[in-house]
Amino acid sequence: MGALMRAHDWPATPLGSPAGWPKELKALVGVMLGSRQPMYIVWGPGHTLLYNDGFAEILARKHPAALGRPVLEAWSEIRDHLLPLIERAYAGEPVHIEDLALTLERRGYPEEAHFSFSYTPVREETGAVAGFFCLCTEITSQVIAERRLAAETERQRRLFEQAPGFIAILSGPEHVFEFANQAYMRLSGNRKLVGKTALEVFPEATGQAFLEWLDQVYASGERVVAHDVPVRLHRSAGAMPEIRFLNFIYEPVTDEAGRVTGIFVEGHDVTETHQAQAALAASNARYTSMLAAMSEGFVILDQDFRITEINAEGLRLDGRPAREILGRTYWEVFPATVGTPIEAAYRRAMSERVPVELEHRYVNQAKGLDLWLALRFYPIPGGVAAFYRDISDRKRAEAAQAQALRQTEDALRQAQKMEAVGQLTGGIAHDFNNLLTGIIGALDLMQTRISQGRMETVGRYANAAMDSAQRAAALTHRLLAFSRRQPLAPKPVDANDRVASMEELLRRTLGPLHALEIVRADGLWTTRCDPNQLETALLNLAINARDAMPDGGQLTIETANAEIDGASAASLGITPGQYVAVSVADTGTGMPPEVIAHVFEPFFTTKPEGQGTGLGLAMVYGFAKQSEGHLRIESEVSKGTTIRLYLPRHHGAAVEEVSATIAAQQAVRTGAGETVLIVEDEPLIRDLITEVLQDLGYRTLAAVDGRAALKILRSHQGRIDLLVTDLGLPGINGRDLAEGAQQARPDVKVLFITGYAENAALANGFLKPGMDLVTKPFAVDALAARIRSMIQGG
Hints:
Beta-Lactamase; 26 helices; 41% helix; alpha+beta; five-stranded antiparallel beta sheet; 794 residues
């Protein structure tokens, strides 16, 4: 501090240079700097502060800035406390204070501080007070310590008084009560204790161990610790003795010489705990008995999935002793459950704290176990409890019952199938017999008239036979459509164009009593289907609508794009996605729900006998399903019917072609000498096609099967423009023949003829570019138009 004093800029202070300081000040500074006791000097009218190292510690962060400054500036936060004391000192009055409590900010924050100090006024030679000298001691630590001691003493007294356990202090060999807290008073039944001996207070304790232990502690000086000691006490006047269970300590109290002068008693009345433990023990015994008697397996897992408990049934089901199971994780004990629904159920019950139930087949090949288990998992504090039982017998019984039910259902389905087949064949036989009767009768009459030379009526009978034959062909097509086995030639189709091309035909079909409105959607997507079958379907729907409006009405055909979402697709039985919808709506008689339920069944019709086969809607429905679409019907009696045909969207442009209806009307009946190879195993059909094509001006080659046709394709020197082949040839079928033909002659076109085709032959993509298909029976005009369009098309 001396160096700091010497280095200080004193001339800048009211004291000036130290050389000019009065001798009284110099003497005091010398004494102050030579002492470790905190001291400081306040000098002059400016109250300039000087201090030593001891006081610098009191100043803390105010040092060294406080040196040479006015004392009230240095201690600005306690100015109001210091100013009266300074004024008294400058007035010549010595000031002494044992404990001055102040709030200082010497370390950057407010803190409580206590000081003991003396102000001694210092006079100049003139007798005037020039300043004062302060001897200072900080007593903050002592004050706080005393305060804490007093508080601790009071706290201990309160603790003794308010302690939940009973406390008493006994003195002398007679064990006289000097103190007893409230808990002890309650234990004694609020008897008067202080100043009385233990035996006076508790006469009923004679012969009980706790009084004898008091004598033992007083005599030996060794503590006694007791647990669950039963004590009989009268807790109220006239009452029967009550047994209380006590935990207590008798601690000897000694004087300075180590002699026992009394006993400190501290303890707790644990009667309720003792009773609860007894009840718990009884409950545990019942619990253990219950678990042992349970017919279900039972385990408890802690939060780490360690097995802490398993009952006898659980051990029986597992076959191992408890020592191999308890304390291990469930996954260690039952590794076969890892990755199964059992593990998932345990983890869900543990993490989500919800009950979980399941039935699971548990297979442990290492142990030869194959059990069906019913399991229930319940969250409990700190883990999960699981109940499980063997339900293998029940499952076997259910499986046997399910098998019996399946066999019964199979038998029922077979019976229903046979009934349906009977109905179907009966309907087919009825309709075909009618048609064959017309054909045979017309042919018989033709033979008779020709033999009689009466040729004028032969044409009428020929037309009648042709009409019956065409109706028979239509019937077979409808049957194939219903069974979804009709040969399809799917192509990208613009439904708007197809509907527009049929408008004239539809108006003629409907007649003058029925108005036709066609609403074509803008931006209609392309669909992929057989365009000819689409036309047939629309024509069938239009005819049905016309017949439902006998007195006339409105028929509306409308196209639209349709987005089918998951829920709607599920109800329709199709794949979600984008579809082209073609709807046919009429204002006719409509149908009740019980009729709608049967409209897609074969031979079901609401028309009078002889006016319908009952296959129209069945055919349209079969076409929709075979095209990976759907047919939906909405109808209300007296308001009309709307049928919507959904066909899948095709991403690509439509293929332009002349509709089958128009093509039949525009059939070209002459060829230009092109060569056509005909392959058909049925001689009558092969000869018929050959004769028809020759009459139309085509050169023909014929083969009885695929092998013979391949020889012609490879050996014929001239051009072969078209291969006409039956699909169902013996040996090499028509499809394989077509592939061989295009390998031998890449430019050859192929026209397939079939009356029936397997699903594999009708799959989308079967008809490649340069291929087409016609179905038996066919008209000469239709065959000629198809051949001419294929040859001219490329």
